[in-house]
Amino acid sequence: MTPPDDQLETHRAIEAVWRIESARLIAGLTRLVRDLGLAEELAQDALVAALEQWPQTGVPRNPGAWLMTTAKRRAIDLIRRRQRLEQKITELGHELENEQAGAVSESDAAFDAVLEDTADRIEDDLLRLVFTACHPVLATEARVALTLRLLGGLTTKEIARAYLVPESTVAQRITRAKRTLAEAHVPFEVPRGEELAARLSSVLEVVYLIFNEGYAATAGDDWMRPALCEEALRLGRILAGLAPDEPEVHGLVALMEIQASRSAARTGPDGEPVLLLEQDRGRWDHVLIRRGLAALDRSEQLAAARGSGLGPYALQAAIAACHARARTPQETDWRLIATLYQELAGLLPSPVVELNRGVALAMAYGPEAGLELVDRLAGEPSLKGYHLLPTVRGDLLAKLGRLDEARQEFERAADLTRNGRERALLLGRAAACGQGRAGRSQGPHDQA
């Protein structure tokens, strides 16, 4: 009998393997059975088999191949029981015969040959799974949940905890998403031609939504949720490898790498927020900055080769790069940032982009210039419940010495935010204004 400590270590190894291999496993099975829900069930069955067998037999040398082989066997049994898809049975049987020599007997030479033959197909399957999980036919919340479940390998409990929603809600979203994909007969394929650009934007949106929820949590008591940032970065890097010629993929990776480089400096000893202009830049991760700048350079090269300008994610990455390159807040090129926001507004007209441009104008040309733009956004319906509008307006009013008006704006922003850490920060600024002090400068929103 395996000692308890060894069993615990094996279970940890299985969990790590699942996080790494689950997306490829589900992708490969979906290609074979053409049913996303069934593919996930088969993958889960293989996981259960590993949990039952590996504590006694040890972790195989090639655990991913073991899981795939086990899942394919179960697929054959299921297809036989349903008495259909005889041709598929033959295909799966041939694949098993070829793979068992390497995966099950673990003959190194045979297994390496199998890997070499199937590597490209696995990557193609994974890319198909990305586009399926992020299909626009699904609601945004469903796309996010399904992506984290299938590509991130997160459990419904982990997703629910990250988004502060009941586990049953996440489970329902995932179930409905699979049903919607099946009913809509969404093909398991990578879109081509003009459809690719539209579908790719949906994929990038999902990845960035995951990152943003980790970088600036919308609710709860934590300013950040680093695990979501890490998951989004991992997905972005995978996507960059799968679609190496797409400029905006590299633009998004650049943006996330550079933003993530600030993570250690964004919170104080007690978890309180530390805003951009007050951060210790010595705590920024310069490895991530270099990676981000390299990804931005790659995006710029690809865009230039196509004869096009930078896309929205690459422009935001260029803005983030302005901060990353500045050794001190005073060295930040705010005029360039304001220009980049103007370009971004041309590509992606949005009141939020205009709000950020107002911040940049204030930093470049004085608070009056920023306030003039921000005031024009006061009646914008889409910003009615957006706490950063009164936050930015309060900061600009405080800089102009209009402290009573600033206090009211900070109090309104505190009422609107659902994040406990941010609420405390805003109430502190309101109290400082009430005492005749401007308090700590809010500065630009730390998303840029």
UniProtKB/TrEMBL annotation:
<dbReference type="InterPro" id="IPR046531">
    <property type="entry name" value="DUF6596"/>
</dbReference>
<keyword id="KW-0804">Transcription</keyword>
<feature type="domain" description="DUF6596">
    <location>
        <begin position="199"/>
        <end position="299"/>
    </location>
</feature>
<dbReference type="InterPro" id="IPR007627">
    <property type="entry name" value="RNA_pol_sigma70_r2"/>
</dbReference>
<keyword id="KW-0805">Transcription regulation</keyword>
<comment type="similarity">
    <text>Belongs to the sigma-70 factor family. ECF subfamily.</text>
</comment>
<keyword id="KW-0175">Coiled coil</keyword>
<dbReference type="InterPro" id="IPR013324">
    <property type="entry name" value="RNA_pol_sigma_r3/r4-like"/>
</dbReference>
<keyword id="KW-0731">Sigma factor</keyword>
<dbReference type="InterPro" id="IPR013325">
    <property type="entry name" value="RNA_pol_sigma_r2"/>
</dbReference>
<protein>
    <submittedName>
        <fullName>RNA polymerase sigma factor</fullName>
    </submittedName>
</protein>
<dbReference type="InterPro" id="IPR013249">
    <property type="entry name" value="RNA_pol_sigma70_r4_t2"/>
</dbReference>
<dbReference type="Pfam" id="PF20239">
    <property type="entry name" value="DUF6596"/>
</dbReference>
<dbReference type="InterPro" id="IPR036388">
    <property type="entry name" value="WH-like_DNA-bd_sf"/>
</dbReference>
<feature type="coiled-coil region">
    <location>
        <begin position="68"/>
        <end position="102"/>
    </location>
</feature>
<feature type="domain" description="RNA polymerase sigma-70 region 2">
    <location>
        <begin position="25"/>
        <end position="84"/>
    </location>
</feature>
<dbReference type="InterPro" id="IPR014284">
    <property type="entry name" value="RNA_pol_sigma-70_dom"/>
</dbReference>
<dbReference type="Pfam" id="PF04542">
    <property type="entry name" value="Sigma70_r2"/>
</dbReference>
<dbReference type="Pfam" id="PF08281">
    <property type="entry name" value="Sigma70_r4_2"/>
</dbReference>
<feature type="domain" description="RNA polymerase sigma factor 70 region 4 type 2">
    <location>
        <begin position="131"/>
        <end position="181"/>
    </location>
</feature>
